[in-house]
Design a protein that fits this description.
Elements (H helix, E strand, L loop, with lengths): L1 E8 L5 E8 L2 H10 L3 E7 L17 H16 L4 H10 L4 H15 L4 H6 L7 H13 L2 H58 L5 H34 L3 H11 L3 H24 L4 H10 L4 H15 L4 H7 L5 H13 L2 H54 L4
Helix pairs in contact: 2-3, 2-7, 3-4, 6-7, 7-8, 7-10, 7-15, 8-15, 10-11, 10-15, 11-12, 12-13, 13-14, 14-15
Amino acid sequence: MSVFEYQAIDQKQQKVSGLIESDHIKNARIQLKEQQLIVLTITPTKQHSAKAKHLFQKHLSMTDIAMLTRQLGSLIQAAIPIDQALNTILQNQHKKHLVKIIKQTHSQILQGQSLAKSLDSNHEQFPDYYIATIELGEASAKLGTILEALAIDIEKQQQFRRKVSAAMIYPMVVSVIALVVVYSLLVFIVPQIAAVFQDSGQELPGITTFVINLNEFLTQHSITIFSILLLLIVSVKLLLKNPNIKEKMQRLLVKVPSIGKVLITTNAIRFARTFALLYESGAPVINALNNSAMALNYLPMRQAILKAREKVREGSSLFSAFKQYQALPPVTLYMLASGETSGQLAKMLNKAAQNQENEIDHYTTKLVNIFEPVMILIMGGVVLFIVLAMLLPIFELNQIPL
């Protein structure tokens, strides 16, 4: 199957464009005519199939998805048909990867597919719960309202993610600068001073000898060290694609106090918001649990929720099932129990997510405030060590009797 890009005139004399799959360009023209479109241009694209997976295909960011969802929801709420809404968005969009996906979706809508199935043809671009929520919106005839709620949910997740990322970027930048400063001192400054000591022929203190040897090692093996680090980073990324290895690494990582708290809390927040959205949209509890679990990056929590799902399927309450497998942190768990008892499950889960977002925001801010003086002390100590290593031979040289 090949993919063809077309421009045509619809029944309302409006210009539309999109992508269509067919085994031949003639058959593609026939399909478009059957959709009562007057074909203006039709050309083959480099893409072989809308369902084909491309190794280097650019993925949509969550910001792109939120923008598309909000615009589509607003247009549908204004009683504009989906195909016209997509065409309107397409006319005002310039990102090539987003334009391609909108065209594919628009084309499949014209062929009679639902919005959920049309988007699912690019399932690697959208989270599972996203497609499931849209499907619920179409089934309930409240697509516009649910799209707007979905956009708000994605924007909240993005806002929270940006807060956490911003808090983590500062320590990383400070650490990199510190390493660059120390490396520059050892590679560029130390050799010039060490040359003076070596010419004098005096016996050097232990720390001076250590710093000089460290300089020689770094000078001779810098390329090897950077190559090993790069290889290590690539290897870890490849290993993390294996779910079993990723799960084991996450179980080790979660034991680190600060990292573990952030990892567990952020995934609990994502589960609470996703499950609340699906549940409020009318999804069956089992389906909502499945899609919410698949939205998580922390595999041990995902597996615990999937196990709890089976208990719920057997008739257990959500609270009992989640408590048995310790699937969620205590705060989220007991807010879930309160919502389940009072019949306000979605409201209580959203409240739990908001409370935990505030908590993790304060926690990461506190970590950064602690990290800054600690990093300054460590960096100052390393620089002081190097300076002392260079100064001690000078002091000893001044004490030599003339």
